[in-house]
Amino acid sequence: MTAIDPLKTELRAFVVKNFLFGVNEGLRDDASFLDEGILDSTGVLELVSHLEQSYGITVDTDELTPDNLDSIDALTDFVTRKRAVSQDHQSAG
To answer: Model's pTM, two decimal places?
Structure first.
């Protein structure tokens, strides 16, 4: 059994609060936001704004893909990668 990932917990809480009106029932970590009708284009912009403000990352236009933003799992992996790259740049500079 894996430990609870605080980042995943935070991202889930944001999605549930802002896009599911606080109803967390049945949202799997790998469920597609698009397929489930959770996010539309405006929601994606709101999500990206949250990621940038909360986690100090920049989401480039070419990163606006389902691979990065279409599930709790994808978001967690994406933010983790972006934060690692950001930390690498800071420590190198």
So the answer is: 0.87
Sole residue written with tokens 């704004």: 49
Radius of gyration of the chain (CA): 13
Q: pLDDT, tens digit, for every residue of 16-52?
A: 999 999 888 889 999 999 999 999 999 999 999 999 9
Q: Own/partner pairs for 47-50, CB < 8 Å, 24+ apart?
A: 47/14, 47/15, 47/75, 50/14, 50/18
* CA dist list (Å): 44 to 1, 37, 66: 31, 12, 10
pLDDT, residue 89, reads: 66
Whose CA is closest to 31, among 73, 63, 67, 65?
73
| CA-wise closest residue to 10 among 58, 61, 53 | 53
